[in-house]
Amino acid sequence: MRxxxxxxxxxxxxxxxxxxxxxxxxxxxxxxxSDIPLLAEWVGRLYTHHALVPDAAMIDFYVELAxxxxxxxxxxxxASFLADDVAPFTPxxxxxxxxxxxxxxxxxxxxxxxxxxxxxxxxxxxDGRALILPAPPGSGKSTLCAALVNxxxxxxxxELTLIDFSGGVAYGLARPVNLKNASIDVIRRFAxxxxxxxxxxxxxKGSVALMAPTAxxxxxxxxxxxxxxxxxxKYCAGARGVLQPMGxxxxxxxxxxxxxxxxLLGQQGFQTVGALVGACRSFRFEYGDLEAAMRTxxxxxxDRS
Amino acid sequence: xxxxxxQGEGWHASQSTLRSLFLEFDDGVVAFDPETGETRQYAPxxxxxxxxxxxxxxxxxxxxxxxxxxxxxxxxxxxxxxxxLALTNEGALERK
Lengths: 305, 96
Fold this sequence. Notes:
The structure holds 2 protein chains of 2 kinds. Chain A is an alpha+beta fold. Chain A has helices spanning 9-17, 37-46, 97-112, 141-149, 182-190, 215-219, 248-257, 262-265, 267-279, 290-302; strands at residues 21-25, 28-34, 61-67, 78-83, 92-93, 117-126, 129-134, 154-157, 160-163, 170-171, 177-180, 200-203, 206-211, 226-235, 240-245, 281-287. The longest helix of chain A has 16 residues, at 97-112. Chain B is an alpha+beta fold.
């Protein structure tokens, strides 16, 4: 199996400008294309551990980041995201091309992948058991996820958790983690060895940097994990970081609120969320200190009750 | 028994109850109406009464009253629902 790491920078650049860089991200095979020079370097670094998709394999998503043409090449240049040659979004400044690739891939999954329940949630795993962290933006979900991944938990996803209809399997994507605003420096201090992209400022989400998934996460990306815990995180300065048990009906409604395709799945979605709630212990978690949070989750993983 | 001619909020709520799927948990019941796609959470007692009403095939009138009771909140809901349950058990409310 060949990895992106086996390609030189020139080969990555050539693939992106030509027929595309074929990258496996868990259950989805993607083709990335782009004529934007800065993208090649960062795709190479952030996806370095990912497998290359063989030529004969089926592709799920053909995506492209295309530099603007005409005057826009010189005046405030922009990038357009294309999925199967269709542009679902308005163009963004070209220096936002890297986060745009990730946002665009998330859009592809949410728009087309209804063979699974999709939760707006981070998901990490240890010893085959998945910890699902559903929460709205700004709750500290990605920060917590990035910290856990740098302390031995396996990254499944920082943004989209995919659950099969039995509720008993969570699939991994192991794509880069989106860090925003203050969390960028928090993770830099917490995990100095983590590979972070350059910071892109003035996006709709503020300042954004992407953290590369760990090699171990990517190597195990095709090993599904069994959902064991649902934890609703919330960063709150000074919070003690105690897990507060949450009722199952309340958990059910929280998962529904954070599901991307629940309404579309109808009865199947209701049954899947029910099965997922039945398989997991559920908690609320307000945290103000990452080190203390790590200890809490380590203890949770050790507890076999 | 209410007929469609007497349709009101209560009647619609009772029809939703009859076609809904229920899941019962320690802290309450969640109901999914496949026609509207709506998911609702009920307190344990209210949810239990609704589930019982569906399973036992309680008459439309009973469901209508139950639906009205569920529009109440807090202590009032508990009282009304408890009273309804007692009346139903005593046979004072119509059953199919």
